[in-house]
Write a structure and sequence with these properties.
The chain is an all-alpha fold and about 40 residues long. It has one helix spanning about 1-35.
Length: about 40
């Protein structure tokens, strides 16, 4: 029971981290494409 909760929590955190990484990467490329914000 506890192992399942830990496993799902770890999986959820990993998915959120990967999702944020990809979404922020897309947003940064869009923002830097329109105006040079120096985020490279």
């Amino acid at each position: 029971m506890i192992q399942e909760i830990i496993a799902f929590a770890t999986l959820g955190i990993a998915l959120v981290f990967l999702g944020k990484k990809f979404f922020f990467k897309k947003e940064k490329t869009k923002k830097c494409g329109t105006e040079d914000c120096g985020c490279h």
